[in-house]
Design a protein that fits this description.
The chain has 299 residues and is of the alpha/beta class. Helices cover 41% and strands 14% of the residues. The N terminus is likely disordered.
Amino acid sequence: MTAEGAGRAGEAAQAPGAAPRIVWRCRDRAFDLTERALVMGVLNVTPDSFSDGGRHFAPDAALARGREIVAEGADLVDLGAESTRPGSAPVAAEEQWRRLEPVLGPLARDASAAISVDTSSAEVARRALEAGALIVNDVTAMRDAAMPEVVAGSGAGLVLMHMQGTPADMQRDPRYDDAAREVAAFLAARIEVARSAGIETERIALDPGIGFGKRIEHSLELVARIETLAALGRPVVIGASRKSFIGRLLDLDVDQRIEAGLATAAIAVFLGARVIRTHDVRATVRAVRMAGHLRAARA
């Protein structure tokens, strides 16, 4: 799919001169992202998260944090049980589900919480969707051959992310000639794979994978050139929160990166991002809203 063709697919039935309407359909919910961006709060149910060191690994702690994320104003809770930090090893599906099950079920029963499951395992995705998740956030863009069928049959939303390599080796020597164009071309191809499996275009969002097989300059370029990704006609997800490129640029430890993360989130929304994935929910909600007002004033 070309950027032009994908863009037309996401702009159907527009009045002459109207801004393209951007809708993300996730099971029984339709998020209208035409005029505002969503905030996706991160909840890691892992013992080795780079961002919190496993603070929410215990089910009670994870559930409390999930409810706090909702109370802080997040539109989505992104629940993951497998670390994808550089150098991390895969976690078996059964272990992922053992970590997820006691947290996902209670959160999904809260009508105010929209749950995204952060997994590249089709089996984990299937169980999570049966338990009430609305979105599958797949950092491998469906490398698991069973994932397209699982998502297609559920009506769930889908985040397709670009990653060069695997978490175990992605930061060894990532190279691009034109990061924005190459990532966009990869994501356009994955949209076609999803569509061929019966996943409607309106159910798809796209994540360039900041920090996933990217040098500092690549991550900066992908945020600065969001329009290259947005030309595919689907919502762009940016997850720069607490990432190592911020720490390396500004010489900051992981718990000192909030201001830089907020700046990145606000600029990303101003440039066209439609979903911001973050660990720092309350502050990001405010930054994203302000950036949205500024973007609207420019139109």
